[in-house]
Specification:
The structure is a homodimer. With about 450 residues, the first copy, chain A, is of the alpha/beta class. Chain A contains 19 helices and 15 strands. Chain A has helices spanning about 40-45, 50-55, 65-75, 85-90, 110-125, 140-150, 160-165, 165-175, 190-195, 205-220, 230-235, 240-250, 265-280, 300-305, 345-355, 365-380, 385-405, 420-430, 440-445, and strands at about 5, 15-20, 60-65, 80-85, 95-100, 130-135, 155-160, 180-185, 220-225, 255-260, 290-295, 305-310, 320-325, 360-365, 410-415. A 7-stranded mixed beta sheet of chain A has the order 1-4-5-15-10-11-14, sandwiched between helices. Chain A has a 4-stranded parallel beta sheet with strand order 8-7-6-9, sandwiched between helices. Chain A is globular and about 60 Å long. At the A-B interface, helix 3, helix 6, helix 8, helix 16 and helix 18 of A face helix 3, helix 6, helix 8, helix 15 and helix 17 of B.
Chain lengths: ~450, ~450
């Protein structure tokens, strides 16, 4: 029997996360307040607990994973590394295609990798309740699950239009015991302000963030959690790449190229950074390794944005961070990979891309679903629309290998399953999906609105 | 770290299925035609391929699993055996609770365990296309997946009301390349007859079966597949119990009681029979083992039905089989565990129950969802409504252990995840679910319609 699934044992779950900051030539630029001055850690203590802030600021290469976190990880980790042999055969490529499958988690994506330690550290720090925002519900359901694992109540501000149109992840959060509110609510000043202007507001991620942050800032017992972008989230996600390295060692291979979908950057950093560490360490096997972030052409942050200081949210409530951005006013079209609809990107991914340690690639929506359907038919797993971006890039790479005859080893991050996204596949299969590309002038216009500090 | 997930390696995937018929004191009563005479195997050849029929009739104890089937199984098998430690703690029970988790398959349930070999043997026998019927889509999606794995086109007749109201499993089948028709269709005589009487017919499983069987019977290149009830389906499902036994051996334990949800009986037989084999062999460890089939009070086949010859379908198209039945006219209420809404049961499970080798238990709907939510909050996995029946029984057993102080080892079959059933959890959480129990007179009335042959 050809071993197509490379498993590890529970004891192989990493005992420490990898912090790429330790290997950067210069430290990442600090987050700034709207006055242009670096934010003091104390200012963030209102919404984040100490241990999380410490990780956010850390330059230490390895950070121990608490046993209690590994115990919860063990419910689904180590996740499998799979050889996509049927896909290779379907494509007729000499390339070897592997995927790391994160859809095996309870919430069905990589998100619990960070939700679990965030809930754990909050519990440890005495937090009594967590808040967060969610769009379609990937992060919301992960933190609902993780909060439940550590006995922490969770309140989720869910964008109203998603709350109404995508009820199933809401039900999942409620099944896990979370309170879910359709945002804007009348529970916060931010929400009330919006409702006063527009009682029928469908909500937005920006508004939901403001509500969740406001509740956390106002109550010392409450902390806020974020599912991507920030350094500590990328740190937690490195379990993906650390396991994948061990799995490749088990079969005596090493990837030539790694593709990961990239929205806020956490799953991409999670799979890429531990391999990048080999490159930083001058390891021969990693000398020609390429790590490629794959984003939608409809939200081309890394490929068409500016590397500049910008707000993390649409409303300008958050600190200003140096990152690739399309401008915080940029409103991407309603594509089906909701997790990739973000105007900015992780400051760590951004810096490493700017310094050419990483690459970026944009792919159009319809082609990603075509790749996702090919993958589902070959490998039997229905992928999340976000994951379809990496699949598209991996298939294109494999087809180039077919042309050139090069037997490259390709790794991609299959970040989640598509069980809650079947309506999108339906649209694709019935020919109703469209591609979107932003005219360059629209991006220029949005970039003109960048804050005038820190540049 | 407490090992809560007992994994096996790919080489531990069973190399043979266990056939409980070999251990029965008397052979199972043969299926009869409507004339009351045993059906000749040749008569079944019109809709089933030779190797499948051979398994259906076999009394051989062990039947080899082809390598090509094991290769596909290896995508998700061996499935994990998990210790529900958090649930035990939540209940405060001295019992040890384990579950075998079949939701890790591509289709999200145990169904591919039989869909894969059925597709394989059909391919081997030269079948050019498969047909089947499906209600909510669990079986349809599994055979769509399995057909794709062996390059066999699949046509699914999906009950029209489900086709319209539960579009997501339909999308999944189509993503896997299957053709899905809303039944009744005008493609078959059976469908046209229904439509002539009622152009707006919402369809039924009985009508969909008739359409799928008619297409298979009319075309020598087409075969029909069934997802439960028949002997060969239960045979294939024994991989569940065979793996579980190996996993218990790994940790030096053995279950005192096994609970599985029971509709057509395949997942229940799959987990129970390999353990029952130990009992038949006189093994000491199995001396006090109890295997309990759990069904809904709204469709109490095993607990209130008759052990008698009856049709497998509502319309009387199939052979007559000796089984527990509520009568083929019995129409269960529209409960949310669609997989358990069947008037009959597996002839093998029925015979073993009749001979008191197995037990049966009926539980009401609302209590099963309550158990499912408790389980989701403790263990992090949202279970399928069918699985919730076994969870209810396992929790009740654990609570009895709490009363008695007995540290029993409980095993239940977590047959699938509930990702496509969130609307049902929504109803439960908002207090809209109801219990149904059939008045005994209604059951008597339905039983009065049993065929007058073979009794």
């Amino acid at each position: 029997m050809t071993p197509l699934r490379i498993n590890l044992e529970a004891e192989d779950i990493p005992i420490r996360w990898y912090n790429v900051v330790a290997d950067m030539a210069t430290p990442p630029p600090p987050p700034l307040g709207s006055d242009g001055k670096p934010i003091a850690p104390e200012a963030m203590m209102a919404i984040f607990p100490g241990p999380i802030l410490e990780q956010e600021m850390s330059a230490q290469r390895w950070i121990a994973i608490p046993e209690q976190v590994r115990q919860v990880y063990a419910q689904w980790r180590p996740s499998p590394l799979c050889r996509a042999l049927r896909l290779e055969q379907m494509l007729g490529t000499p390339a070897k295609i592997f995927y790391k499958y994160e859809g095996v988690s309870p919430a069905g994506s990589h998100k619990p990798n960070s939700a679990v330690p965030q809930a754990y550290y909050n519990k440890l720090a005495g937090t009594k309740r967590l808040t967060t925002e969610t769009g379609a519900g990937q992060w919301g359901s992960s933190i609902a699950y993780a909060g439940q694992m550590f006995g922490l109540p969770v309140r989720v501000y869910m964008v109203k239009v998603s709350y109404q149109q995508k009820p199933f992840r809401r039900s999942m959060m409620q099944t896990w015991g979370a309170e879910v509110f359709a945002s804007p609510t009348d529970r916060t000043q931010a929400g009330r302000n919006v409702l006063a202007r527009d009682p029928k507001s469908p909500g937005s991620l920006g508004i939901a963030i403001s509500e969740a942050v406001e509740e956390a800032a106002a109550d010392p017992d409450v902390c806020y959690t974020l599912g991507s972008v920030l350094n500590h989230v990328l740190l937690h996600q490195t379990v993906i790449g650390l396991e994948a390295k061990k799995q490749f060692e088990k079969i005596g291979l090493y990837p030539d190229v790694i593709y990961g979908p990239c929205g806020g950057g956490s799953s991409f950093g999670g799979i890429a950074f531990p391999f990048l560490a080999d490159k930083f360490a001058g390891e021969k096997r990693a000398a020609n390794l390429r790590c490629v972030a794959v984003e939608p052409t409809s939200c081309p942050t890394l490929t068409q944005g500016a590397y500049a200081y910008d707000y993390g949210d649409a409303s300008g409530y958050t600190p200003i961070m140096k990152m690739y951005t399309l401008g915080h006013d940029f409103v991407p079209p309603g594509i089906h990979a909701g997790g990739l609809r973000y105007h900015g990107d992780s400051p760590l991914v951004s810096k490493l891309l700017h310094e050419k340690h990483l690459e970026a690639l944009a792919v159009p929506q319809v082609a990603t679903f075509a790749a996702g359907v090919d993958f589902a038919r070959a490998e039997g797993i229905v992928p999340a629309p976000e994951s379809c971006h990496a699949i598209r890039a991996a298939i294109d790479e494999a087809l180039r290998c077919k042309q050139s005859g090069q037997p490259r080893t390709i790794l991609f991050n299959l970040t989640g399953h598509g069980h809650f996204d079947m309506a999108s596949f339906d649209k694709y299969l019935s020919g109703q999906l469209e591609d979107y590309a932003y005219p360059r002038e629209a991006i220029e216009q949005s970039l003109a609105g960048l804050p005038k500090v820190g540049s």
